[in-house]
Amino acid sequence: MHRLDRQTAGIEQSYPIKVLQIGGGNFLRAFVDWMVSKMNHKGVFQGSVAVAKATPGGDYTELRQQQGLFHVAVRGIREGHTIDEMDLVSSVEQVLQPYDDFASFLKLAESDSLSVIVSNTTEAGIRYKDQVFSESEAATTFPALLTAFLWRRFQVFGGDRDKGLVILPCELIEANGDQLKEYVVRHGKDWKLGEVFLEWVVEANTFANTLVDRIVPGYPGADAAELNERTGFDDQLLVAAEPYHIWVIQADRDVESLFPLAKAGLNAVYTNDLTMYRQRKVRILNGAHTSMVPVGLLAGIETVGEFVGNPDMEAWLVSVLQDEIMPTLDYDNKMLQDYMQEVLDRFRNPFVEHKLSSIALNSFSKFRTRILPSLLAYVELKNEVPSNLALSLAAMIRLYEGSWKGEKVALKDGEDVLWFCQNVWAEYRSDKITLNRLVGKTLAHKPFWGLDLSEIDGLEDQVTDYLYVIENKSLVDHIIQTTKS
User: Fold this and answer.
1) Which residues constitute the domain of residue 458?
2) Cα separation of 392 and 462, whole Å?
3) DSSP codes joined into one string, 315-371
4) Better-scored residue on pLDDT, 81 or 149
5) In this structure, what DSSP letter does residue 96 have?
6) What separation in angstroms does the CA of 177 have from each of 12, 194, 197, 283, 362?
7) Are residues 428 and 402 located together in one domain of the fold?
8) What is the pTM of this model?
9) Checking phi first, is residue 324 left (phi over 0); if not, alpha (psi -120 to 50) or beta?
């Protein structure tokens, strides 16, 4: 077994750095770096990536040791066929740690070849926090760090409008590019960098709103030895990913000619409005995840694959999507049906072990963004409560009691959420009256939902009925009975 580096892998060719990547986690490596490598192999980009650490601590030691090389194990089902490929990614040329060597990070801003910045600093990464401007030390937030980088580029090139960059944030928040631009401009104003700089930021640079989607489970520990045996390398950065991928880029300027993903056969969409793509993903794919999590965990199911591998659970999930979520989306029905089948195929991927417990993180906020819009739209459309979504809501409320069948539930959520749930469940006395009171207080808690859900006719009673079934009867039997009827 060989160590993995450019000499042992026979990688001699290198390209000028065209992409600065803020963050070097599993997702960006199996998504962006993999795509840049694909574009290079097709001869349509011929550029490399500089990866910069987004936070203090650590310096991507393994990535440095392997000289930017790693494999992506692309495995799954596509159109009924099994995909099992090992792709060597060779697009990463430089690794930077701004918090140890800020000068080298800013030096990249002076590069004439640089054209694109990508990032994934998690949903919490695009935020505003007061910072003291410094040209010698890295700021502690991504927007501030980016502002300092753009300021250096503005100075070096004298405000040349042709030296603006295309900025593609991959953080999973709505209007990610717009929000990032807003915070960069705010820092520029706070730091008194001048109106000319602010105009250059807005007019010379493109902050694109994006939507990214690919399931990347990370290092395939159970299969790593076998996969490394196939390649002949001891790859410490081996990362698993599903075959499906999509990158939707919304910009008012021509990004495709600069970053030609589609020319390399990649699933990229360049559009002036990504609303449909975002709504479809959030409501169907993410909605399916969030609705199945509490039901599955209470039923003793551990993974997404196990959930859809159970005929009764899969039938219930299909009903959630077909009968309660998709009717609220005003798009072509065939397109929605095809997308649903694609999502279910992805869930069935035998190579991906996607744990429900990991998806359960921050379930209340996820329910609000992923499920609640469908529930409210269904009530408005049908003038009745969607029963499956009400069951999922009841299961989530039960999960947040903190224990199930004598075992503690490992809840990961904000302290305010956990405190509220602990207190309302402390009043429960195993009867329907106190259950109804508990449900009423939870639905009326506006910080969870942004509105008082107890005002929706029938929702409180239906959630209470389902919670009573979960608490005193059998959730699994109820679902089986429901799917058979």
Assistant:
1) 276-484
2) 11
3) HHHHHIIIIIIGGGS-S-HHHHHHHHHHHHHHHT-TT---BHHHHTTTHHHHIIIII
4) 149
5) E
6) 36, 22, 18, 21, 24
7) yes
8) 0.85
9) alpha
CATH classification of the domain holding 144: 3.40.50.720
* Degrees to nearest 5, angle at CA 273 with 337 and 36: 85
Q: Where are the beta strands (DSSP E) in 251-303?
A: 268-271
* Residues 50 and 180 placed together within one structural domain of the fold: yes
* 189-226 confidence digits (pLDDT tens): 999 999 999 999 999 999 999 999 998 988 998 899 99
Both tokens assigned to 166: 């295309």
Task: Single out the residue of 167, 178, 237, 257 nearest to residue 206, CA to CA.
Answer: 167
- CA 485, CA 480: separation in Å to the nearest integer? 9
* Other C-beta atoms lying within 10 Å of the C-beta of residue 408: 8
Which of these, 242, 363, 223, lies nearest to 305 by C-alpha position? 242
Q: Measured between alpha carbons, how far is 404 from 411 in angstroms, rounded to an integer?
A: 12
Name residue 168's beta-bridge partners: 118
Report the DSSP pairing between strands 70-78 and 81-89.
Answer: antiparallel
R_g of the chain, CA atoms, integer Å? 24
Q: How far apart are CA 401 and CA 403, in angstroms?
A: 6
Q: How many domains does the chain have?
A: 2
Q: Where are the beta strands (DSSP E) in 344-444?
A: 403-404, 407-408
pLDDT at 32: 98
Burial of residue 229 (CB within 10 Å: 0-12, 13-18, 19+) is: exposed
Token pair of 216 as six digits: 């990347």
What is the CATH classification number for the domain harbouring 467?
A: 1.10.1040.10
Q: Report which of 405, 406, 474, 462 is spatially closest to residue 432, judged by C-alpha positions.
A: 462
Whether the Cβ atoms of residue 363 and residue 293 lie closer than 8 Å to each other: yes
Strand, helix or coil for residue 228? helix
CB 119 within 8 A of CB 21: yes
Q: DSSP strand E in 251-355: where?
A: 268-271
Nearest to 465 by CA among 430, 438, 432: 432
Tokens of 244: 């499906």
Task: Answer yes or no: do 328 and 463 share one domain.
Answer: yes
Distance CA 348, CA 306 (A): 8
Percent of the chain having pLDDT more than 90?
85
> Parallel, antiparallel, or unpaired: how do β-strands 239-241 and 233-234 relate?
unpaired
